[in-house]
Each structure stands twice: as structure tokens, then as C-alpha cells.
Fold this sequence. Notes:
- InterPro entries: PspA_VIPP1 (IPR007157).
- This is PspA/IM30 family protein.
- Residues 44-139 form a coiled coil.
- Keywords: Coiled coil.
- Residues 224-261 are annotated as: Disordered.
- By secondary structure, the chain is mainly α.
- It folds into two domains: 2-157, Helix Hairpins, CATH 1.10.287; 202-260.
- It is 91% helix and 0% strand.
- It contains six helices and no strands.
- The chain has helices at 2-19, 22-77, 81-154, 158-190, 203-253, 255-260.
- Helix 2 runs antiparallel to helix 3.
- The termini are far apart.
- Mean pLDDT is 76; it is low at 252-261.
Amino acid sequence: MKRMGMIFRAKANKALDRAEDPRETLDYSYQKQLELLQKVRRGVADVATSRKRLELQLNQLQGQTSKLEDQGRKALALGREDLAREALSRRAALQQQVTDLETQHTTLQGEEEKLTLAAQRLQAKVDAFRTKKETIKATYTAAQAQTRIGEAFSGISEEMGDVGLAIQRAEDKTQQLQARAGAIDELLASGALDDPTGTAKDDIAAELDRISGGTDVELELQRMKAELAGGSTSKQAIEGGPQDAAQQQDRSRSPHKFDKE
């Protein structure tokens, strides 16, 4: 089980590594830093609000102590020492509250200063990270583009590999079809396959056509010889005159007659 778990984690890590885009990771980290900076700023604002509230309470208590002091003085001037003592007692109680609030105010003011300084430092770090992030993203994008261009030129990229495979398959299919067409033509010419259109001929039909063609040539040659022979006889008759022509005709009619004479 441990081995299976290790194999599963290794494969999952490899799959995540392939799916991870450093630019997206940097953007996500930057977003998280901005959220943290926003929380710090919100804390500074909350502390400042609490400090302001204490300042209002201090102002109010200090006004009350001043008023009680005036009332004690007036009561003492009127001979009401008891009222003057009561006013001073109340003033003393308020003064203790003022002291406590002043202590809290000092503490809050110190916390506000610390948070403000932390926010400023965090803001500087976020700004530096943003500059570095953009630099890394630009470098990564340029390297990725250069790699893709190199793969395209070398033909080892996935897209170019798919194109090369498609071209190879098309060439293979073309050669296969050409070979099949040539084989069919040879089979039709040899008579191994019947041509349903009647264009193909077997060996006997081809031999008969050849003999018929030769006979036609011989007949045409004999006809031309006869025409030439007839033309020569007519020419001789014209040159010898009518008598020679008549004798030639008589000879052609009865050749034995001239032999006896």
C-alpha cells in the first residue's frame, strides 16, 4: 500500500508539474500578497479608529473634570464645603478614568505606528515582487516562444509532428491507390479480370484483330498493284497509236491467235 501511495503521489506530482504554469503561480502569489497587505491596512484603520474613539472619550472626560473643578470652587466660594468636597471626589474618579484612557491611547498609538510601518514595508515588498514577477513572466514567455519556434523549425513540436504524420499518411494512401490502379490495369490487360464495359480483350480477340488488320493491308496492297498495272497499259496504248492499242486489245482477248501467226 505504501508503494502504491508513493506511485500515485509521484504520478500526481508529475501531472501537476505539467499542468503548472509559472506565470499563473506568480500571479496567484501576488494576489495573495495584495490580500495580506489589504488586511494589514484594514488593521491599521481599525486601530486608528479605536485611537480616535479614545481621544473623543478623553476629551469628554477632561471636559467633565474641568467642569467639576469649577463647580467645587464655586461651592467653596459659597461656603458649601460639602458640595465642594463632592465635586472634587467626582473629579478624582474621572481623573482616574482619564489616566486609564491615556494609557490605552498611548498603547493604541504605538500599535498603530507599528502596523503602519509594517504596512509600508509590506507595500515595498509587494511592489518589488510585482516588478520581479513581471520580469520573470516576460522572460518565461520569451523562452517559451523561442522554444516553440525552435521546435517548429526542427519539426519536433507536437503540432508539426501531427502535420508530418498527416502528410506521411496522405503519401502512403496515394502510393497505395497508385499501386492498386496499376495492378488493376495489368490484370485487365492480361485478361485475368473481366471488364464489364467491354473495353478489355482476351488474347484470342487480340490475335484475330491483328490477323484482320494484316489481311486488310494485303488486300489494299493488291488493289494498288492492279491500279498501277492498269495505268501502265493505258499509257502504252496512247504512245503506240490506235493500231498498237487495237493489237494490244486483240492480244488481251485471244493470246493464242498471235502465237499461231
